[in-house]
Amino acid sequence: MKDPCENSAENEPEEEVKAAAGDFSEIAEAEKGSVADSDSDFETEGTLGLGEVVKDTLYLGFCQAFNVVPVSCFLRQENAAELSLRHRGLGPQGAQALASMLTSNPYIKRLDLRDNGLCVAGAEALADVLSKNSSISDVDLSENQFGAPGVQALCAALTVNQAVQKMKLAGNGLEEQAAKYLADLLLVHTGLKSLDLSYNQLNDQAGETLGPALAENTGLTELDISWNHLRGPGAIAFARGLEANIFLKVLDISYNGFGDLGALAVAEALKVNNVLEELNMSNNRIFAAGALSLGMDLRVNQTLRILVVSRNPMQSEGCFGLLKSVQDNTASALELLDISDIEVNRKFDDLASSVKVILPGLCIKKGAQREQYPQGSAPK
Which positions, given as ranges, span the membrane (predicted)? Predict the structure, then answer.
Protein backbone atom coordinates (compact mmCIF):
# COMPACT_ATOMS: atom_id res chain seq x y z
CA MET A 1 0.00 0.00 0.00
CA LYS A 2 1.29 3.43 -0.95
CA ASP A 3 2.35 5.70 1.89
CA PRO A 4 -0.10 8.65 1.85
CA CYS A 5 2.76 10.94 2.88
CA GLU A 6 4.80 10.13 -0.22
CA ASN A 7 4.52 12.50 -3.18
CA SER A 8 2.42 10.93 -5.90
CA ALA A 9 3.50 11.17 -9.52
CA GLU A 10 -0.12 11.78 -10.38
CA ASN A 11 -0.31 14.99 -8.38
CA GLU A 12 -0.64 18.14 -10.41
CA PRO A 13 2.38 20.48 -10.52
CA GLU A 14 2.20 23.24 -7.93
CA GLU A 15 2.02 25.96 -10.60
CA GLU A 16 -1.00 24.30 -12.25
CA VAL A 17 -2.80 23.94 -8.93
CA LYS A 18 -2.22 27.58 -8.09
CA ALA A 19 -3.37 28.64 -11.53
CA ALA A 20 -6.54 26.57 -11.29
CA ALA A 21 -7.27 27.87 -7.80
CA GLY A 22 -6.66 31.40 -9.04
CA ASP A 23 -9.18 30.89 -11.84
CA PHE A 24 -11.81 29.90 -9.31
CA SER A 25 -11.00 32.96 -7.22
CA GLU A 26 -11.56 35.16 -10.24
CA ILE A 27 -14.88 33.42 -10.96
CA ALA A 28 -15.99 33.93 -7.36
CA GLU A 29 -15.03 37.60 -7.46
CA ALA A 30 -16.97 38.06 -10.71
CA GLU A 31 -19.94 36.31 -9.16
CA LYS A 32 -19.66 38.54 -6.11
CA GLY A 33 -19.64 41.67 -8.27
CA SER A 34 -22.60 40.67 -10.42
CA VAL A 35 -24.70 39.75 -7.43
CA ALA A 36 -23.81 42.96 -5.64
CA ASP A 37 -25.13 45.00 -8.59
CA SER A 38 -28.51 43.28 -8.48
CA ASP A 39 -31.45 44.04 -6.22
CA SER A 40 -31.77 40.44 -5.06
CA ASP A 41 -32.63 39.96 -1.41
CA PHE A 42 -30.16 37.60 0.29
CA GLU A 43 -31.92 37.92 3.65
CA THR A 44 -34.62 35.41 2.63
CA GLU A 45 -34.84 32.59 5.15
CA GLY A 46 -33.15 29.39 3.98
CA THR A 47 -31.01 31.18 1.41
CA LEU A 48 -27.23 31.51 1.68
CA GLY A 49 -25.91 35.05 2.04
CA LEU A 50 -23.47 36.56 -0.45
CA GLY A 51 -20.40 35.80 1.69
CA GLU A 52 -21.36 32.15 2.08
CA VAL A 53 -21.95 31.73 -1.67
CA VAL A 54 -18.54 33.16 -2.50
CA LYS A 55 -16.74 31.16 0.21
CA ASP A 56 -18.40 27.91 -0.85
CA THR A 57 -17.50 28.57 -4.48
CA LEU A 58 -13.88 29.19 -3.51
CA TYR A 59 -13.65 26.06 -1.36
CA LEU A 60 -15.19 23.85 -4.04
CA GLY A 61 -12.83 25.41 -6.56
CA PHE A 62 -9.78 24.65 -4.43
CA CYS A 63 -11.00 21.07 -3.94
CA GLN A 64 -11.28 20.64 -7.69
CA ALA A 65 -7.86 22.22 -8.19
CA PHE A 66 -6.28 19.87 -5.66
CA ASN A 67 -8.29 16.91 -6.99
CA VAL A 68 -9.90 16.06 -3.62
CA VAL A 69 -13.46 15.35 -2.57
CA PRO A 70 -15.02 18.33 -0.74
CA VAL A 71 -15.95 17.77 2.91
CA SER A 72 -19.64 18.54 3.01
CA CYS A 73 -19.76 19.12 6.76
CA PHE A 74 -17.17 21.89 6.37
CA LEU A 75 -19.66 23.76 4.21
CA ARG A 76 -22.18 23.35 7.01
CA GLN A 77 -19.80 24.18 9.88
CA GLU A 78 -17.53 26.89 8.48
CA ASN A 79 -19.30 29.65 10.42
CA ALA A 80 -19.44 27.66 13.66
CA ALA A 81 -17.06 28.21 16.56
CA GLU A 82 -15.75 24.63 16.29
CA LEU A 83 -14.76 22.73 13.16
CA SER A 84 -14.39 19.00 13.84
CA LEU A 85 -13.21 16.83 10.94
CA ARG A 86 -11.72 13.83 12.74
CA HIS A 87 -10.95 10.63 10.81
CA ARG A 88 -12.00 12.09 7.44
CA GLY A 89 -9.00 10.96 5.42
CA LEU A 90 -8.30 14.49 4.19
CA GLY A 91 -4.69 13.82 3.27
CA PRO A 92 -2.19 16.56 2.35
CA GLN A 93 -4.22 17.86 -0.59
CA GLY A 94 -7.42 17.98 1.42
CA ALA A 95 -5.59 19.96 4.08
CA GLN A 96 -4.33 22.41 1.48
CA ALA A 97 -7.82 22.95 0.09
CA LEU A 98 -9.20 23.43 3.59
CA ALA A 99 -6.36 25.77 4.57
CA SER A 100 -7.20 28.06 1.68
CA MET A 101 -10.48 28.88 3.40
CA LEU A 102 -9.30 28.93 7.02
CA THR A 103 -6.75 31.72 6.81
CA SER A 104 -9.28 34.53 6.97
CA ASN A 105 -12.10 32.67 8.76
CA PRO A 106 -13.11 34.82 11.78
CA TYR A 107 -15.55 32.32 13.30
CA ILE A 108 -13.66 29.12 14.09
CA LYS A 109 -12.07 29.02 17.54
CA ARG A 110 -11.41 25.28 17.83
CA LEU A 111 -10.01 23.19 14.97
CA ASP A 112 -9.97 19.38 15.26
CA LEU A 113 -8.24 17.54 12.40
CA ARG A 114 -7.13 14.47 14.33
CA ASP A 115 -6.19 11.37 12.31
CA ASN A 116 -6.34 12.66 8.75
CA GLY A 117 -2.97 11.60 7.31
CA LEU A 118 -2.05 15.24 6.71
CA CYS A 119 1.72 14.55 6.62
CA VAL A 120 4.32 17.29 6.20
CA ALA A 121 2.59 19.04 3.30
CA GLY A 122 -0.61 19.28 5.30
CA ALA A 123 1.30 20.58 8.32
CA GLU A 124 2.90 23.29 6.19
CA ALA A 125 -0.47 24.33 4.77
CA LEU A 126 -1.97 24.58 8.25
CA ALA A 127 1.13 26.37 9.53
CA ASP A 128 0.40 29.10 7.00
CA VAL A 129 -3.13 29.34 8.42
CA LEU A 130 -1.94 29.50 12.04
CA SER A 131 0.62 32.18 11.21
CA LYS A 132 -2.17 34.50 10.03
CA ASN A 133 -5.47 33.51 11.65
CA SER A 134 -5.99 35.25 15.00
CA SER A 135 -9.26 33.49 15.89
CA ILE A 136 -8.19 29.86 16.19
CA SER A 137 -7.01 29.20 19.74
CA ASP A 138 -7.55 25.44 20.25
CA VAL A 139 -6.04 22.96 17.75
CA ASP A 140 -5.94 19.15 17.69
CA LEU A 141 -3.55 17.82 15.02
CA SER A 142 -2.84 14.45 16.64
CA GLU A 143 -2.11 11.31 14.62
CA ASN A 144 -1.19 13.01 11.34
CA GLN A 145 2.33 11.68 10.63
CA PHE A 146 3.97 15.11 10.86
CA GLY A 147 7.38 14.08 12.14
CA ALA A 148 10.03 16.70 12.82
CA PRO A 149 9.58 18.64 9.53
CA GLY A 150 5.86 19.13 10.11
CA VAL A 151 6.37 20.24 13.69
CA GLN A 152 9.10 22.62 12.58
CA ALA A 153 6.63 24.39 10.29
CA LEU A 154 3.93 24.53 12.97
CA CYS A 155 6.30 25.83 15.68
CA ALA A 156 7.54 28.55 13.33
CA ALA A 157 3.94 29.61 12.68
CA LEU A 158 3.06 29.70 16.38
CA THR A 159 6.10 31.84 17.02
CA VAL A 160 4.85 34.42 14.51
CA ASN A 161 1.21 34.38 15.63
CA GLN A 162 0.66 33.49 19.29
CA ALA A 163 -3.15 33.20 19.21
CA VAL A 164 -3.13 29.42 19.81
CA GLN A 165 -3.51 28.58 23.50
CA LYS A 166 -4.05 24.81 23.29
CA MET A 167 -2.25 22.42 20.94
CA LYS A 168 -2.45 18.61 20.66
CA LEU A 169 0.31 16.84 18.73
CA ALA A 170 -0.09 13.32 20.09
CA GLY A 171 0.94 10.35 17.97
CA ASN A 172 2.91 12.21 15.33
CA GLY A 173 6.18 10.26 15.43
CA LEU A 174 8.05 13.07 17.17
CA GLU A 175 11.63 12.30 18.13
CA GLU A 176 14.78 14.10 19.26
CA GLN A 177 14.89 16.59 16.37
CA ALA A 178 11.28 17.64 16.94
CA ALA A 179 12.10 18.37 20.58
CA LYS A 180 14.46 21.15 19.48
CA TYR A 181 11.67 22.98 17.66
CA LEU A 182 9.28 22.44 20.56
CA ALA A 183 11.86 23.75 23.03
CA ASP A 184 12.34 26.91 20.97
CA LEU A 185 8.57 27.39 20.94
CA LEU A 186 8.31 27.04 24.72
CA LEU A 187 10.90 29.76 25.14
CA VAL A 188 8.96 32.39 23.16
CA HIS A 189 5.25 31.45 23.14
CA THR A 190 3.95 32.74 26.47
CA GLY A 191 0.30 32.40 25.39
CA LEU A 192 0.40 28.62 24.94
CA LYS A 193 -1.38 27.17 27.98
CA SER A 194 -1.85 23.47 27.13
CA LEU A 195 0.40 21.13 25.10
CA ASP A 196 -0.18 17.42 24.41
CA LEU A 197 2.88 15.49 23.18
CA SER A 198 1.74 12.02 24.25
CA TYR A 199 2.24 8.82 22.24
CA ASN A 200 5.42 9.98 20.50
CA GLN A 201 9.05 8.81 20.58
CA LEU A 202 10.61 11.59 22.63
CA ASN A 203 13.70 10.01 24.14
CA ASP A 204 16.58 10.74 26.53
CA GLN A 205 18.05 13.44 24.32
CA ALA A 206 14.62 15.00 23.90
CA GLY A 207 14.27 15.17 27.68
CA GLU A 208 17.62 16.95 27.97
CA THR A 209 16.40 19.45 25.35
CA LEU A 210 12.93 20.04 26.77
CA GLY A 211 13.99 20.28 30.42
CA PRO A 212 15.79 23.65 30.20
CA ALA A 213 12.99 25.03 28.00
CA LEU A 214 10.42 23.98 30.59
CA ALA A 215 12.43 25.79 33.24
CA GLU A 216 12.30 29.02 31.23
CA ASN A 217 8.71 28.74 30.00
CA THR A 218 6.37 31.39 31.40
CA GLY A 219 2.92 30.36 30.22
CA LEU A 220 2.25 26.62 30.01
CA THR A 221 -0.16 25.34 32.67
CA GLU A 222 -0.85 21.82 31.31
CA LEU A 223 1.65 19.41 29.72
CA ASP A 224 1.02 15.82 28.67
CA ILE A 225 4.15 13.94 27.68
CA SER A 226 2.91 10.46 28.56
CA TRP A 227 3.69 7.35 26.50
CA ASN A 228 7.15 8.50 25.39
CA HIS A 229 10.67 7.29 26.15
CA LEU A 230 11.94 9.70 28.82
CA ARG A 231 14.35 7.82 31.05
CA GLY A 232 17.82 8.06 32.53
CA PRO A 233 19.58 11.42 32.15
CA GLY A 234 16.73 12.72 29.97
CA ALA A 235 14.18 12.11 32.70
CA ILE A 236 16.40 13.80 35.29
CA ALA A 237 16.97 16.84 33.05
CA PHE A 238 13.26 17.12 32.42
CA ALA A 239 12.51 16.94 36.17
CA ARG A 240 15.03 19.69 36.87
CA GLY A 241 13.13 21.87 34.43
CA LEU A 242 10.04 21.30 36.53
CA GLU A 243 11.94 22.56 39.58
CA ALA A 244 12.35 26.04 38.08
CA ASN A 245 8.94 26.27 36.42
CA ILE A 246 6.42 28.48 38.24
CA PHE A 247 3.39 28.15 35.96
CA LEU A 248 2.73 24.45 35.28
CA LYS A 249 -0.24 23.07 37.23
CA VAL A 250 -0.97 19.75 35.49
CA LEU A 251 1.76 17.33 34.36
CA ASP A 252 1.33 13.83 32.92
CA ILE A 253 4.59 11.87 32.54
CA SER A 254 3.00 8.43 32.83
CA TYR A 255 4.20 5.48 30.74
CA ASN A 256 7.79 6.63 30.39
CA GLY A 257 10.77 5.16 32.23
CA PHE A 258 11.72 7.63 34.95
CA GLY A 259 12.75 4.90 37.39
CA ASP A 260 13.97 5.57 40.91
CA LEU A 261 16.52 8.21 39.91
CA GLY A 262 13.90 10.05 37.88
CA ALA A 263 11.50 9.86 40.80
CA LEU A 264 14.20 11.31 43.06
CA ALA A 265 14.69 14.21 40.62
CA VAL A 266 10.93 14.86 40.56
CA ALA A 267 10.87 14.79 44.36
CA GLU A 268 13.68 17.33 44.55
CA ALA A 269 11.79 19.53 42.10
CA LEU A 270 8.55 19.39 44.04
CA LYS A 271 10.29 20.39 47.26
CA VAL A 272 10.64 23.89 45.85
CA ASN A 273 7.83 23.91 43.27
CA ASN A 274 4.77 25.46 44.91
CA VAL A 275 2.54 25.55 41.82
CA LEU A 276 1.99 22.01 40.48
CA GLU A 277 -1.40 20.57 41.48
CA GLU A 278 -1.73 17.34 39.47
CA LEU A 279 1.00 14.81 38.71
CA ASN A 280 0.61 11.48 36.92
CA MET A 281 3.64 9.16 37.20
CA SER A 282 1.92 5.82 36.62
CA ASN A 283 3.88 2.97 35.03
CA ASN A 284 7.34 4.56 35.33
CA ARG A 285 9.36 1.65 36.75
CA ILE A 286 9.41 3.23 40.20
CA PHE A 287 10.33 0.80 42.97
CA ALA A 288 10.07 1.26 46.73
CA ALA A 289 13.21 3.42 46.86
CA GLY A 290 11.79 5.82 44.30
CA ALA A 291 8.49 5.96 46.13
CA LEU A 292 10.26 6.85 49.37
CA SER A 293 12.02 9.65 47.49
CA LEU A 294 8.63 10.99 46.38
CA GLY A 295 7.55 10.75 49.99
CA MET A 296 10.19 13.34 50.90
CA ASP A 297 8.29 15.77 48.70
CA LEU A 298 4.89 14.86 50.10
CA ARG A 299 6.21 15.57 53.59
CA VAL A 300 6.65 19.27 52.75
CA ASN A 301 4.64 20.02 49.59
CA GLN A 302 1.53 22.17 50.11
CA THR A 303 0.04 22.44 46.61
CA LEU A 304 -0.13 18.96 45.06
CA ARG A 305 -3.76 17.80 45.04
CA ILE A 306 -3.58 14.70 42.82
CA LEU A 307 -0.78 12.13 42.68
CA VAL A 308 -1.13 9.08 40.44
CA VAL A 309 1.55 6.40 40.82
CA SER A 310 -0.42 3.33 39.72
CA ARG A 311 1.19 0.37 37.95
CA ASN A 312 4.62 0.90 39.49
CA PRO A 313 6.59 -1.94 41.17
CA MET A 314 6.84 -0.01 44.46
CA GLN A 315 4.91 -2.70 46.35
CA SER A 316 3.26 -2.12 49.70
CA GLU A 317 6.44 -0.69 51.20
CA GLY A 318 6.55 2.17 48.73
CA CYS A 319 2.83 2.90 49.07
CA PHE A 320 3.14 2.91 52.86
CA GLY A 321 6.04 5.40 52.66
CA LEU A 322 4.04 7.75 50.45
CA LEU A 323 0.99 7.70 52.68
CA LYS A 324 3.05 8.08 55.88
CA SER A 325 4.58 11.24 54.42
CA VAL A 326 1.12 12.63 53.73
CA GLN A 327 0.13 11.85 57.29
CA ASP A 328 3.17 13.73 58.61
CA ASN A 329 2.40 16.85 56.54
CA THR A 330 -0.19 18.90 58.39
CA ALA A 331 -0.40 21.35 55.49
CA SER A 332 -0.86 18.70 52.79
CA ALA A 333 -3.31 19.60 50.00
CA LEU A 334 -3.51 16.04 48.65
CA GLU A 335 -7.03 14.98 47.65
CA LEU A 336 -6.26 11.83 45.61
CA LEU A 337 -3.53 9.23 45.95
CA ASP A 338 -3.92 6.67 43.16
CA ILE A 339 -2.03 3.41 43.73
CA SER A 340 -4.20 1.26 41.47
CA ASP A 341 -2.80 -2.13 40.44
CA ILE A 342 -0.28 -2.20 43.31
CA GLU A 343 -0.87 -4.89 45.91
CA VAL A 344 -0.77 -3.57 49.46
CA ASN A 345 -0.78 -5.39 52.81
CA ARG A 346 -2.69 -5.07 56.06
CA LYS A 347 -0.12 -2.63 57.45
CA PHE A 348 -0.93 -0.17 54.66
CA ASP A 349 -4.67 -0.62 55.15
CA ASP A 350 -4.34 0.16 58.86
CA LEU A 351 -2.38 3.33 58.08
CA ALA A 352 -4.98 4.33 55.49
CA SER A 353 -7.71 4.04 58.11
CA SER A 354 -5.76 6.27 60.47
CA VAL A 355 -5.05 8.87 57.80
CA LYS A 356 -8.73 9.02 56.83
CA VAL A 357 -9.52 10.18 60.35
CA ILE A 358 -7.25 13.23 60.16
CA LEU A 359 -7.68 13.81 56.40
CA PRO A 360 -11.29 12.85 55.62
CA GLY A 361 -11.10 14.56 52.22
CA LEU A 362 -8.29 12.31 50.96
CA CYS A 363 -9.28 9.61 48.48
CA ILE A 364 -6.97 6.59 48.27
CA LYS A 365 -7.61 4.66 45.07
CA LYS A 366 -6.62 1.00 45.19
CA GLY A 367 -7.42 -2.19 43.32
CA ALA A 368 -7.35 -3.12 39.65
CA GLN A 369 -7.67 -0.32 37.14
CA ARG A 370 -8.82 -1.03 33.63
CA GLU A 371 -7.31 1.31 31.07
CA GLN A 372 -8.44 2.00 27.52
CA TYR A 373 -5.64 2.14 24.98
CA PRO A 374 -5.93 3.82 21.58
CA GLN A 375 -6.09 1.43 18.66
CA GLY A 376 -2.69 0.04 17.79
CA SER A 377 -1.17 0.97 21.17
CA ALA A 378 -0.09 -1.35 23.94
CA PRO A 379 1.31 -0.90 27.44
CA LYS A 380 5.07 -0.62 27.69
Answer: none
Distance CA 35, CA 289 (A): 76
CB 325 within 8 A of CB 299: yes
Burial of 375 (C-beta count, 10 Å sphere; 0-12/13-18/19+)? exposed
Q: 83-365: which CATH topology? A: 3.80.10
For residue range 8-23, list pLDDT tens digits in order. Answer: 434 444 454 444 444 4
**Residue extents of the structural domains in the chain:** 13-65, 83-365
Task: Please tell me the pTM assigned to this model.
Answer: 0.86
DSSP string across 41-62: -TTSTTS--HHHHHHHHHHHHH
pLDDT computed for residue 376 by the predictor: 47
CA-nearest of 362, 361, 368 to 339 is 368
**Apex 13 CA angle, 7 and 17, nearest 5:** 110
CA quadruple 28, 29, 31, 35: dihedral positive or negative?
A: positive
Tell me which residue of 222, 157, 231, 230 sits closest to 196, measured CA to CA.
222
Alpha helices in the chain (DSSP H): 14-37, 50-65, 72-77, 91-102, 119-130, 147-160, 176-188, 204-216, 232-244, 259-272, 288-298, 315-328, 346-358
